[in-house]
Amino acid sequence: MTLDTAPAPAATPTATAAPRKHLPRPGRLGLHAFLMTVSLAFLAPLLLAVYASLRPYDETSEHGYFSLPKKLSFDYYQQAFSDSDMTKYFVNTLIIAVPGVLLALFFASFVAFAVARLRMRGSVLLLMLFTAGNLLPQQVIVTPLYVLFNRIPLPYWMSDSMTMFDSYWAVVSVQIGFQIGFCVFVLANFMRTLPQEILEAAIVDGASVWTQYWRITLPLCRPALAALGTLQFTWMYNDFLWALVFISDGDKLPITSALNNLRGQFFTDYNLLAAGSVIVALPTLLVFLLLQRHFIAGLTLGSTKG
Amino acid sequence: MPLLRSPGGQRPDRPPRPCGSGGTHSPEPKAGTPKDTGGRTKASVSRRAARRGPRRFTRRDVAVLSVLLGIPVLLDVAIVWGPTLASVALSFTSWDGIGDISWVGTKNYETLFTSYPQFWPAARHNLLWLAFLGLVATPFGLLLAVLIDKGVRFSRFYQSTLYMPVVLSLAVVGFIAQLVFSRDQGALNAILGDTESPTDWLGDPDLNLWMILLAAAWRHTGYVMILYLAGLKAVDSSLKEAAAIDGASETQTFFRVVFPTLRPVNVIVGVITVIEALRAFDIVYAVNKGRNGLELLSVLVTDNIIGEASRIGFGSAIAVVLLLVSMGFVVTYLVQEIRGEKNR
């Protein structure tokens, strides 16, 4: 699976707006019309969510979301933060995602280093073990893990539920265990594109495996790590299932799962829900817009290998 | 360490990369002195020399390797592979999570296929999901990638906008879908202007799945587009020029010349499509917890283990069905990967 002409992956895939060849025909106008229509159609639901979140419920329930506004305000955002304590859930998400991303990248980069750079027996097998693991449906592993976590006792200082179930340990370890496969896959592909000479020179100088990994290979992987980190953060942030299954205490839920709390028992104020959705979506959208290059590089590193 | 590769290991080095510096590495000795040892063949000697002598790893190296490979492998086995096997085993029991585990053979599967009314609709919905993503969303993503790759103006804008939904959590996509498709206030009904008998897009069990599929495709299309866009940018432009000189039309060039070179991307996109379709859960759960026309296998698994009646054995049987379907695709993919690995 090698595209020999692939450019160094992290460097380019997105940033080329360079027009390669100009269509001389008026077909170009049609092309723009088509792309513009699709783009706007893709953008519309997001804009609608923002719009709905700014309007009071009485107004939209009478006229629908698709009507001219009489009153626009940020009341719902205030309500989402004050009534349903979104800040707390944001912190919960960070408690899960930050260690999750860092540890997944650390372990995965070492495995990738061993697989791609040290010529060891069984490295293909190791790579398969991790890659295939990431492709299994989550529901296959959810049941035994649920039982397992319920049976692993943890001291009180680690988990106030006294078991691994209903603690961040469960969610973080599942996130790492599950995502490590993807990271290994991507990083191994990236490391193969690095020149072997650098490593060989280090070996001649008597560098240990750890030095070869930490001091020599890892610094060269910075673009890949940045890309992957961005991507993984978004994925862990967006995760819904793990927390839903492994956490029963509503106060420990991460932000995505907590969104459900904005839904009332008998009555759901969809404008409030829209505000909640925008709040939840905002960090990932910002990450995407600011780090777009890294983000897309992370995805494409896995598919077009150098 | 069983993982240490012997000198005879078959790791043909990759062909030289076009982008310069790293072009020339090969198993032949460069540094160090090639020692000539008696009966050995030349090749094996030079390989060994390239492999920094007979003692590759110090004791400290072995310790580092064992710990830093051991932890992720253990984690992977404990979190992914162990539970997968456990799921398979539990699917043959009638366990409720608390009492004794008793073996019931294939009874769970019989119940599942014959007297569990939600199963077949859920399986059908999953297949429909797969078909819709595979036959509508994925080709659409490819089309958009091809159009953007023509190098039109504003391509950055198009690319970002189309990709934007991908960063949203599926749960958020589910909530946004409710704003668009809600019966009384939704944007769709407002646009259609049907106030007499508004369609309940998400409440009607015959319709709601299609609306959810649209929402899922909204997210899937951008993902596919980005992957193909990267693949297309890597296609050697001289191929296209050659085809053009030979008088091939643009369509012909694409299908006969460009598309075949995209095979690696096709494989990845195929796997992603299958996995997304089988994993689908968050959207329907956010909309109505996967009831009333939105049943999916993943929802049934979750219901059976965290519902009031925790039927672990039965839930596992559903999960195994899901596993078997995805395995078919994953194995195909892995075979491709291993083949690619050998060619490196």
TrEMBL record, chain B:
Q: Which Pfam families match?
A: BPD_transp_1
Tell me how this protein sits in the membrane.
Multi-pass membrane protein
Transmembrane helix recorded as keyword: yes
Compartment(s): Cell membrane
Q: Where are the transmembrane segments?
A: 62-82, 127-148, 160-181, 209-230, 312-335
On whether Chaperone is a keyword of this UniProt record, the answer is: no
Q: Which InterPro entries match?
A: ABC_transporter_permease (IPR051393), MetI-like (IPR000515), MetI-like_sf (IPR035906)
Q: Which UniProt keywords apply?
A: Cell membrane, Membrane, Transmembrane, Transmembrane helix, Transport
Question: PROSITE patterns given for it?
Answer: ABC_TM1 (PS50928)
All copies of the ABC transmembrane type-1 domain together span 123-335
Family of this protein: Belongs to the binding-protein-dependent transport system permease family.
Q: What is this protein called?
A: Carbohydrate ABC transporter permease
Q: What organism is the protein native to?
A: Streptomyces maoxianensis
